[in-house]
Amino acid sequence: MTIAERSHPAPVPQPLTLRQHGALLVKSFEDRAGMGAAAAADIAAALRARIANRGAVRMVFAAAPSQAEALATLVAAPGIDWSRVTAFHMDDYIGLAADHPSGFANWLDAYLFSRVRFAAVHRLDPGDDPEGAAARYADKMAEAPIDFVVLGIGENGHIAFNDPPVADFDDPLDVKPVALDDVCRTQQVNDGCFPDFDSVPREALTLTVPRLMRADRLFCLVPGANKREAVRGTLYGAVETACPASILRTHSACTLYLDRDSDPDAR
């Protein structure tokens, strides 16, 4: 960033519409770039304020192409003391080679973890003992409250890897192994993460719905026409595991960021 850019930062895009669905605040933007820039501005402001007030932040990130624009803007945002931020991520594949670029820890290394200096980065590594890894990760997350979660919504309405067949709004676990449904696995191909369906792992570790919902504040970024029906279910369907993201309507501090393509109400 040049001196001129720091002196005259680009204006934050304004939403086309701002509305409420239950407790969920929805901001809808003209395009994906505007959505990502506006979400990053909100996340950056929240980080600065929380660090100033409490001295540190514990934060969970999603790894997905839908997050790329926002993360690129966020790491370039001024005034964030990343050395006071402890990072987690919300899911990763079981059985994928440790150096596979589509592994979520590796994706976040490329887009985020290697680009700023965190206080700590806790990677979710299933290894050869997924259940043990899940328990250890849950213990690490439970050491102190989670401040913020940055997440998306899947084509089947999942949040993290809580697909409809395995999502549990009353899950007693914080992190668990799950089987991925066919819609979820197909999305990974659609997103360009794998060359074909059979290359997508069948299982993953994921933070559960209650673990996500206990965070103080959630920022949910959902661009693209392929997410429109999932967003419709999130906003207008019953709050039920058939569309796991519908639970976001009950969180006291969650903002959903959409673009024109993903917004079922866009004209």
From TrEMBL:
One of its GO terms (biological process) is N-acetylglucosamine catabolic process. Its EC number is 3.5.99.6. Residues 31-252 form the Glucosamine/galactosamine-6-phosphate isomerase domain. SUPFAM superfamilies: NagB/RpiA/CoA transferase-like. It is an enzyme of class 3 (hydrolase). One of its GO terms (cellular component) is cytoplasm. It holds the Pfam family Glucosamine_iso. Keywords: Hydrolase, Plasmid. GO terms for molecular function: glucosamine-6-phosphate deaminase activity; identical protein binding. This is Glucosamine-6-phosphate deaminase. It comes from Martelella mediterranea DSM 17316. The lineage of its organism: Bacteria, Pseudomonadati, Pseudomonadota, Alphaproteobacteria, Hyphomicrobiales.
